[in-house]
Design goal:
By secondary structure, the chain is α/β, with parallel strands linked by helices. The chain folds into two domains: about 200 residues, Glycogen Phosphorylase B (Rossmann fold); about 180 residues, Glycogen Phosphorylase B (Rossmann fold). Helix content is about 40%, strand content about 15%. It has 15 helices and 13 strands. The strands form two sheets. The chain has a seven-stranded parallel β-sheet, with helices on both faces. A six-stranded parallel β-sheet has the order 10-9-8-11-12-13, with helices on both faces. It is globular, with a radius of gyration of 21 Å.
């Protein structure tokens, strides 16, 4: 099949968020299955800056970047507006057998809806968590009223990551018959032969110290402030714990840095910035626990990566976390995003982190990206 993926931002070398990693992995798998894959996106790294040097993809996947209208507008509204996408889709939409647009709302969705309808090409929407009430606001209410309902009604299929997101889609008026559950996946081959010790040596943390790894965007929804307050409580019970914060700033780094200083956690927290590739795998392998204190979460790819590294998880029992974590076996769930509850979960998890990590590695094999690609391929074939 000739398949078009549309995503607001896409930088596979340094992904900003799980949806970029997902699109990179799933399009590679589709290409391996002999489909023709094209990606339309913008020239933005995330929601704050443009790409400095857009990377080239392999010859099987073609990436076309449209210039974002205003970085300042994006920084304040988180909206990526790419006017050139409209004529580009008008000229090329009829070449594709299916169009797969990522995210729940945006300029790209309006452009796809308009062009696909004119070209009589089916399109799929994959929200990646964007239907959450947490993200509601004036723009989204405006969008849903004037565009959202029509765009959802016109979609051939809606791809949900799990039953939690499927229920959100129904609440937004999507007919159940249109929803297909396609879970996130990871390339398990990348996690074979991981060696412990390299990350600890690089950052200067000895083997007697427990590493808590926060890996992701530093945004209020990710709950780093909850984690820092939890660490303050944990430190009263044991002082052999260091939190490593690895991820790009998405608007909350300055506040969390000040909070760490206010709590006197300078010796117990390392802010190391975003990490990728081998360095990220080394960090996952050396971590004693992967921590996910989110206020909202649909389906964390980072959680799967922790499992594949043999690292147990402590997370809040929100959204899709409850479907991924076997409480007490592959990790520990804090009942809600509360720092006292999260501190208690950490103290319960640390002594048995190694045992739970082994169970986590066994559990993750059901989320191989090759299996995910097969499920998604069957959804495309329903429409093609």
């Amino acid at each position: 099949m000739n398949i078009l993926h549309v995503i607001p931002t896409f930088n596979p070398e340094h992904p900003f968020g799980g949806s970029q990693s997902y699109v990179d992995m799933i399009t590679a798998q589709l290409s391996n299955r002999k489909h023709i894959v094209t990606i339309y996106t913008s020239d933005m790294q995330g929601t704050a800056q443009k790409l400095k040097a857009p990377c080239d993809m392999d010859k099987e996947r073609r990436v076309v970047r449209c210039r974002n209208l205003s970085t300042r507008l994006t920084r304040y509204t988180r909206l990526i507006v790419t006017p050139h996408l409209v004529p580009l889709l008008e000229a090329t939409a009829d070449r594709f057998e299916v169009i797969h647009v990522h995210g729940g709302r945006g300029f790209q969705h309006v452009a796809v809806w308009y062009a696909a309808r004119r070209a009589c090409v089916p399109y799929i929407i994959q929200p990646h968590g964007d239907f959450a009430d947490y993200y509601s606001g004036m723009f989204r209410r405006f969008y849903d009223r004037f565009f959202g309902t029509q765009i959802l009604r016109g979609a051939g299929r809606i791809v949900a990551l799990n039953s939690f997101e499927a229920s959100q889609c129904v609440q937004h008026g999507v007919q159940k018959r249109k929803i297909r559950i396609v879970p996130n996946g990871i390339n398990l081959q990348e996690f074979t032969g991981l060696k412990k010790g390299r990350f600890r040596h690089k950052v200067g943390i000895d083997t007697n110290t427990k590493i808590l790894l926060f890996l992701g965007r530093i945004h209020p929804v990710k709950g780093l402030d909850i984690l820092l307050k939890s660490l303050f409580v944990v430190r009263k019970a044991r002082n052999d714990v260091i939190l490593v914060v690895a991820g790009p700033d998405d608007g909350d780094l300055a506040r969390c840095s000040r909070l760490a200083q206010t709590l006197g956690l300078e010796a117990n927290v390392r802010f190391i910035g975003p990490i990728f590739g081998r360095e990220k795998l080394d960090a996952l392998a050396d971590a004693d626990l992967y921590v996910l204190p989110s206020r909202y979460e649909t389906f964390s790819i980072g959680l799967l990566e922790a499992y594949a590294s043999g690292t147990a998880v402590v997370a809040t029992a929100v959204g899709g976390n409850q479907e991924l974590i076997v409480d007490g076996a592959t990790g520990v769930l804090a009942t809600k995003p509360d720092y006292h509850m999260f501190a208690d979960a950490l103290l319960r998890a640390i002594p048995k982190s190694e045992t739970m990590g082994k169970k986590a590695r066994s559990y993750v094999h059901r989320f191989d990206i090759a299996e995910t690609a097969g499920i998604l391929e069957s959804v495309y074939l329903e429409l093609g």
